[in-house]
Amino acid sequence: PLIPTPEYLSRLNPEQRRAIETTEGPLLILAGAGTGKTRVLTTRFAHLLLTGRAYPSQILAVTFTNKAAREMRERVGAILGEPAEGLWLGTFHAICARMLRRHAEYVGLTSGFNILDTDDQLRLLKQIMEPFRLDTKRWPPNQLMGIIQRWKDRGLTPDRVTPAEDTDFANGHALAIYRAYQLRLRELNTCDFGDLMLHMVEILRSQPNVLAQYHRIFRYILVDEYQDTNTVQYLWLRLLAKREHGPSNIACVGDDDQSIYSWRGAEVENILRFEKDFPGAAVVRLEQNYRSTAQILAAAAGLIAHNEGRLGKTLRPGREDAQGEKVQIIGVRDSDEEARIVGGAIERLQADGHPLSEMAILMRAGFQTRPFEERLMTIGVPYRIVGGLRFYERAEIRDCLAYMRVLSQPSDDLAFERIINVPKRGVGAVAVQKLHGLARTLPGPLTAAVLTQIEQGTLKGKSKEALTSLMEAFQRAKATLETEGQVVAVEQLLEDSGYLQMWRDDRSVEAPGRLDNIRELLRAIGEFATLEGFLEHVALVMDTESETTDDKVSLMTLHGSKGLEFDTVFLPGWEEGVFPSQRSLDEGGNRALEEERRLAYVGLTRARLRAIVVHAASRRIYANWQASMPSRFIEEIPSEYVQIGGQSVESRRQAAAAPSMFASGPFTSTRPSGMPQTPRPRITDVQPQANVPVGATVFHQKFGEGTVIAVDGSRLEINFENGGIKRVMANFVEIRS
Ligand code: ATP
Ligand code: MG
Predict the structure, then answer these.
(1) Strand-pair category, 27-31 with 282-286
(2) Annotated catalytic, 258?
(3) Is 31 a known ligand-binding residue?
(4) pLDDT digits over 620-661, tens only?
(5) What radius of gyration do the chain's Cα atoms show?
């Protein structure tokens, strides 16, 4: 060729180059994990600029997270040799917010509109619901919020909700409330998160001049993680890309096997529709994986092959270090040992010169970080939580800690203030102020002031009732503490004070995760002899905020790990009911399970050199131990790519003559033994249904005798003779008949 290939293209394979050099017309890049999709998109961005096809401001590039946007900005900057500025590069929401500021008047807002956070959103919705006089127990506002969000995810303004899309929720008033909610938002010159997309789609649909303006601006559109776009995002892209005259220069990259956000309304079908929407679209498949070793890749491929209805893709290992290590499967006794083993492996890798920043622990759910955080703090390994807070910094955990601090130390005013109106008890800021005033005139703490006021009858109405019952809850818990120990006492306190119920009533997507965190907290309390011992431990670990080093182990959820890569990836908690999650098993059918499997696939394919899967033989549920079975995903990985190892510490000590790989150098031995011989779960018997028949009479330590009225997984709904209907863990009851 006359013109030499520019440097930035020469390092790419022919398909990747085709995906970059096919600049005009619609393009779909469909490829498996680690094939360079994001890299192609980034290079394509630079290529468009360097070949003079577009100015930086003429390219719209959509990423899935702000982190990805930042990385892409840096990568483009590196290729260009200067910082890239003024780009339309960001997440769907960030870009839409910027657009909407320019056209806010079309939807009745001004450019200075506010964006509500989820708390405000809910508060507003509750106000809107009031005149409808609904029983909020039956129709929780949070649930309605969810319905409205799903409508917004699908691009449905109130006017566009057809009878077929409507719901019976809220006695059939859901749509009317949605309409009123939208009106009120407009009056307040605000919008919620979902409105950013919804309004922009509405504007582009109804204002041809605005649409034409963007058609002029955006000569090229680039979209990463296309498999996770929802309908409203898809509509927005289609509007911007499809023009009457001229080609649609839209390039989307995606992998149907990594679609993990259907619970947030993502529609993997958008990929399938692409060729229909954009006739003549070029489709490029990238098959060379540059990230992972052949072993890891084959393991992940074997696993995902268990899903049906895939588009099907070839994935070839591309790394020169060819074979590499097999995926390690480690069976441990419990979560303590799990954290110890992972911590130990991290230390050994570090001692061998591997940077911590190249190691990650990926878990199914946020609550699972806790034992690892504690272990890493204990052994002094710095870590960061990606996309979330450290366990003890999470709001619900801080609330619970505040309850516990008051229980252990009634004079802890700070803690008491935090929870005096959480959950909402109708004790307003003014009442708290008044109590404070009183506390200052009296010698004792705030709790004492409250008691005094109750006795003297100075508190009135709702505040009096609420605070009386709160103080009683503390007193009862104090008594329980003496007789039954801290776990039962704290659980009772959180129950009696209405704190747990608050989260149970909460229908937001985060609420179940928060309850899981609290359960995890109760588990942690059980590991200490006393409540004070535990609180002291927390105070100490919270203090060891790691130094300002950048070399840290990353802890995150599998969802948060999308698009990232690490040399070493630890995948703990591969047990039935943890991963796949209990919720996905409860749902039954294949849909949820397949999404879990895609999540497992995402997890394995984050690893460049090593993937270590861990499962524990038992987990502590409150004070009890529950046996757990290895995840079905473990068995679904073809055995030739797996190495079983890491038996429990005890058995390893006994077999000291033949040390396992985890006792010696990292991941070198090939001794195929040690996996606990738990019977393999079959699909039919993995739902850990409590073995208690409906109708049985049972006894519960705290609530006494009752009759089982429903069984939901490991939980029972029981009608207690003296306590009404409650949901309790099955292993907390004794069967009487
Ligand atoms: P995911 O599906 O996980 O998002 P991806 O397809 O976006 O993966 P990238 O993150 O773009 O993959 O690339 C994976 C790794 O392979 C990166 O480290 C990237 O730099 C490297 N890579 C991609 N293409 C090449 C190539 N032609 N030569 C060498 N390395 C490459
Ligand atoms: Mg990517």
Answers:
(1) parallel
(2) yes
(3) yes
(4) 765 567 889 999 999 999 999 999 874 443 444 444 333 333
(5) 28
Is 255 annotated in the active site? no
Query: Measured in angstroms, how far is the CA atom of residue 155 from the centroid of ligand 2?
Result: 26
To test the ligand 1 pocket, which listed residue (15, 65, 226, 290) has its Cβ within 8 A of the most ligand atoms?
Answer: 290
Is residue 142 a contact partner of residue 506, using CB atoms and an 8 Å limit? yes
Measure the CA angle with vertex 101, ends 98 and 104; round to 5°: 140
Nearest to 474 by CA among 450, 504, 453, 455: 450
Read off the pLDDT of residues 556-613 as tens digits, 9 standing for 90 and up: 999 989 889 999 999 999 999 999 998 899 988 888 999 999 999 999 999 999 999 9
Whether the CB-CB separation of 486 and 525 falls below 8 Å is answered with yes
pLDDT at residue 117, rounded to an integer: 65
For range 124-134, the mean pLDDT: 89
DSSP state, residue 577: B
* 123 vs 132: CA distance, rounded Å: 15
N-to-C CA span, the chain: 86
Q: Of residues 192, 195, 225, 412, which has the active-site annotation? A: 225
What is the distance in A from the centroid of ligand 2 to the CA of 306? 23
Cα–Cα distances (Å) from 596 to 273, 307, 315, 363, 719, in that order, read 24, 10, 21, 12, 34
Q: Is 184 among the catalytic positions? A: no
Q: Which of 679, 674, 690, 703 is nearest to 731 (CA)?
A: 690
Nearest 5 degrees, angle CA 664-CA 669-CA 672? 125
- Unique residue bearing structure tokens 């590039």: 61
CA distances from 254 to 37, 63, 102, 104, 114 (A): 8, 11, 30, 32, 33
Model pLDDT, residue 621: 63
- Of 62, 188, 180, 204, the residue nearest 115 (C-alpha): 188
The rounded distance, in Å, linking the Cα atoms of 266 and 720 is 42
Question: In whole angstroms, what is the distance from residue 150 CA to residue 161 CA?
Answer: 11
Rounded to whole angstroms, how far apart are CA atoms 663 and 270?
A: 48
Has 697 been annotated as catalytic?
Answer: no
196-to-19, 145, 191, 223, 623 alpha-carbon distances in Å? 31, 16, 7, 18, 46
Residue 527 has pLDDT above 60, yes or no: yes
pLDDT at 650: 40
- Partnered with residue 553 across adjacent β-strands are 383
255 in ligand 1 pocket by Cβ < 6 Å?
yes
DSSP codes, 489-531: HHHHHHHHTTHHHHHHH--STTHHHHHHHHHHHHHHHTTSSSH
- Indicate which atom in ligand 1 lies nearest the CA of residue 289: 16
Active-site residue, selected from the candidate residues 15, 195, 202, 224: 224
Q: What is the DSSP string of 654-674?
A: HTTTS--TTTSSTT-------
Alpha-carbon distance values, 320 to 9, 15, 246, 293, 606 (Å): 20, 19, 43, 9, 18
* Each residue's pLDDT tens digit, 230-250: 999 999 999 999 988 888 999
84: Cβ below 6 Å to ligand 1?
A: no
Average pLDDT over residues 80-103: 86
